[in-house]
């Protein structure tokens, strides 16, 4: 492409020289500049790639990322500006704010400039501008929305499952924004799916914003921290202990004793109160 541009320039220069020979001796330089500018396409100037998502939804406490893609940037600089107070947050990869939650990210030789906001707070919601230092400057607005949404596993924080039985966990995210919510399960740090091993089923209803994890015939190796992760929501976790039959019986017995003790103490306290109560006066009937 550049070769074609140079050839076109040479053609124009040749035409200009011919014109000079047959008419005036000195053609103004601005005429040549005008001709050259007419053949340089607009794509050669910095411009935005509008294919990036400009409405970002982030759950409270999560990390938000705004992606700005600038084509043909050349030697210009990209800045991120917070619109509500016109604060310049970043220029290039440098950060110009005391709030360390704001970070600039850029990969060399790429067109993408990312504003990263760690641990999003409600005050972070609003409009942010990606600005290019052309003359005049060009900018593109991004809207950050902060929502309070949390995935919830419908179970106790700690579960004791007998070896050989099934794990059945249900996760919901009713406040997740949008009509559909993608939900995933993790054991410790590894993704759990139907292909992890035999006997695992993950059934998710994106429109209902629910997901069900079933692991059949659990083994001791299935013990661990299980996490439900939903789009634009904080995750939730439970810890699953896989125990043997004898341990299960012992724990059930211990739990029964714990439940009986409060009732026994309550009975003793009631008897003590009755014993300490003063006797009622007796009325003689004459």
TrEMBL record:
**Residue limits of the Ig-like domain?**
46-133, 136-239
One GO BP annotation is: synapse organization
Q: Enumerate the SUPFAM superfamilies for this protein.
A: Immunoglobulin (SSF48726)
SMART domains, per the entry: IG, IGc2
Q: Kindly state one GO CC term assigned in the UniProt record.
A: neuron projection membrane
Which residues are the signal sequence here?
A: 1-18
Q: Which domain of life is it from?
A: Eukaryota
- Give UniProt keywords alphabetically: Signal
Q: Which Pfam families match?
A: Ig_3 (PF13927), V-set (PF07686)
Q: Which InterPro entries match?
A: Ig-like_dom, Ig-like_dom_sf, Ig-like_fold, Ig_sub, Ig_sub2, Ig_V-set, Zig-8
Gene3D superfamilies of this UniProt entry? Immunoglobulins
Q: What is this protein called?
A: Hemicentin-2
Q: Which organism is it from?
A: Drosophila albomicans (Fruit fly)
């Amino acid at each position: 492409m550049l070769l074609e541009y140079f050839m076109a320039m040479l053609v124009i220069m040749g035409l200009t020289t011919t014109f000079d020979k047959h008419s005036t001796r000195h053609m103004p330089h601005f005429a040549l500049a005008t001709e050259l500018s007419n053949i340089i396409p607009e794509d050669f100037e910095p411009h935005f790639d509008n294919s990036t998502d400009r409405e970002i939804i982030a759950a409270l406490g999560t990390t938000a990322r705004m992606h700005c893609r600038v084509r043909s940037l050349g030697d210009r600089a990209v800045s991120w500006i917070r619109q509500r107070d016109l604060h310049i947050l970043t220029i290039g990869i440098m950060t110009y704010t005391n709030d360390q939650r704001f970070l600039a990210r850029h990969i060399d030789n790429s067109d993408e400039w990312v504003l990263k906001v760690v641990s999003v707070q409600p005050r972070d919601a609003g409009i942010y501008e990606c600005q290019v230092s052309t003359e005049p400057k060009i900018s593109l607005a991004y809207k950050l929305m902060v929502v309070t949404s949390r995935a919830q596993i419908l179970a106790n924080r700690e579960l004791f499952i007998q070896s050989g039985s099934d794990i059945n966990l249900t996760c919901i995210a009713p406040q997740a924004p949008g009509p559909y919510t993608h939900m995933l399960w993790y054991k410790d740090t590894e993704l759990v799916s139907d292909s992890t091993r035999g006997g695992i089923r993950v059934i998710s209803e994106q429109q209902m914003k629910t997901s069900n994890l079933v692991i059949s015939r659990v083994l001791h190796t299935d013990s661990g921290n299980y996490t439900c992760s939903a789009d634009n929501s904080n995750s939730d976790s439970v810890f699953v202990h896989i125990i043997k039959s004898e341990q299960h019986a012992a724990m059930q017995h211990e739990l029964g004793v714990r439940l009986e003790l409060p009732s026994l103490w309550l009975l003793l306290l009631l008897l003590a109160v009755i014993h300490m109560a003063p006797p009622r006066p007796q009325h003689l009937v004459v």
